[in-house]
Structures are given as C-alpha cells and as structure tokens.
Amino acid sequence: MILITEFMDEAAVKQLAAAHVTRYAPELADEQHKLPQHMAGITAIIVRNRTQVSAELLAQAPDLQCVGRLGVGLDNIDVAACQARNITVYPATGANDLSVAEYVITTAMALLRGAYQSQAAMLAGTWPRQACAGREISGKTLGLIGYGSIARETAARATAMGMKVCAYDPFVDSNNPIWGTTQALPLEALLPIADVVSLHVPLNKDTFHLINHDKLALMKTEAVLINAARGGVVDEAALAHVMHKGILAGAALDVFEEEPLTATAAAKFNGLNNLLLTPHIAGVTVESNVRVSQLIANLVDQHLTQSN
C-alpha cells in the first residue's frame, strides 16, 4: 500500500491508485502522532517537507520499500536510517527549479522597488508616491550562496534582466564550466558587494545559522536578503535585529526555523517594513505541483512494480 501524507496533484494520485492500493491522507501532516499506527503494510510513503520520516517512524514500517519526496530537501527524512534499511529515497530533483528561480527574481524586484507594501497607506489616503520610488533590478549585483541547479536557473534569469551575478559554493571547483558568466567568490567577498543575496543551500550542521549577526554585518545597508532554501540557514533573531535597527533594507523569508510559523515565533518580525513572509511556497506553483507529483508518482510506481 502507498500512503500519501501531504498534498499531491490529483492526476498523479489517480495514476498510483490505478496500479497500487493507495491511501491519500494529507490530513496526517497535521496529525503526525497518528502516523505510526498507519505504517503496517505500507510499502511506499510520499511526503513533502512537513512529515517527519524518522527512525522511530521507520521502526513501525516493516514493509516500507521507498520514500517519495515531493520536493528536494531531505532534512525531514532520516536518510541514514533509510539506507540502513535499504529503503530508497526519491527526491523530485529538478522538478521545481523554475518555480523557485521565478520566486527569487520576483521577490528581489518587489523588495528593491519597495512599492508593493503601500496598501495600508493607500487605503488611508496618504498617497505615498515619493516613498514608493524604489530601485531597478537592472545593473544590480545578485549574490547566490550555493550554486546548484536552482541557483543556476536563478542566475540565468537575473543575467537576462541585466544583473551581475556572483556566487559562493565551496563544492564547485573554480574551473567547472557550470560557472559560465557567474563570478565565483568566497562568502566574505560576496556579501559586501551584493545588492541581493539569495540562499540556495541545504540545512545541515555546516549551514545552520550560516547567515548570522557577523555575516549580516558584512552586507550593504541597502541590500536585501532572500531565503527560499531552508529554515535555520538564517538566524531569524539576528535578521529581525538588524532590520529593526535599519541596517538592512529588506528581506523575504519563505522558510522558517519553526514550521508552520506560529504567531509567537513571528512576533520578532512585527513592525518591520519591507519584509515579505510566505509559507514555504517558493517551489510550489500549479505547474510545479504537476511536475513534482508526476515525477514522484512515476518513480514510486516503477520501484514497486519492479520489486513485485
């Protein structure tokens, strides 16, 4: 049996159900304490980023053969425990690259322009025209932290819009042709020159709070920061502090240390101008949901079919 614990495109669910016994139960993402009692007889589980596929959960799933991840980050999946059990993990590599790249560029434009947070003032009749006269994206420098496939998609779109692009990635050799026209720089050299800093790294012990007080202090006061990678890569308290002090011009967070973001966790952001908060949606569009769902449906179907 296949268990799907988070939202998936209807056509992909129907495809799986036509070939395998399938339970579509996205409500379980909010009731994860109930998950263990449903794992007996489950040969495949399909999740997004909220369902925690832990060693404890795996211990309750003796028949599990594979995990389908409707996305690319694997920090909610105990990959080592899966490997120890010979359980294959399938991420949807590449299927939402375009969505995230478009999110980053759109958000960068909104933050630099500074005109799209004026609704309250407009409704109050204050006509804040001068305050809304922001900046263009053309001619600005985009600094990418991490230079994987999503970052490269972002770089291509930024270059097409007239931006200069530099990137930091210690895992990509400086002679690698994938750099193209992007300038490879150390992190400490990138941060002081970038007008827009966008994060494209996984969350691990090396990247936790990678952007902290010290790193934020290296950035231009007129720069903006975008995190559509993983919560925890940015020290949210440090970011809120520098923004309250007016040391950073703007920021957008699509991912958070605590998800879903609670009112208590969000309180530190109250009163900040030019701050955009979105609910881990950068990689989720109508089109990407179809691509991601179809890819994972195909991979899981193929795995279960070949194992029978």
List keywords for this structure.
single chain; 308 residues; alpha/beta; Rossmann fold; 2 domains; seven-stranded parallel sheet; five-stranded parallel sheet; 12 strands; 32% helix; 15% strand
How many helical elements? 11
Q: What structural category arises from helix and sheet content?
A: alpha/beta
Report strand order across the widest sheet. 8-7-6-9-10-11-12
The whole-number mean of residue pLDDT values reads: 97
By CATH, the architecture of the largest domain is named 3-Layer(aba) Sandwich
Distance between the termini: 12 Å
Using DSSP, what is the number of strands?
A: 12
Q: What percentage of amino acids are in beta strands?
A: 5-15%
CATH overall fold name of the largest domain: Rossmann fold
Radius of gyration: 21 Å
Low-confidence stretches: none
Order of helices and strands: EHEEHEHEHHEHEEHEHEHEHEH
**Helical residue percent?**
25-40%
CATH uppermost class of the largest domain = Alpha Beta
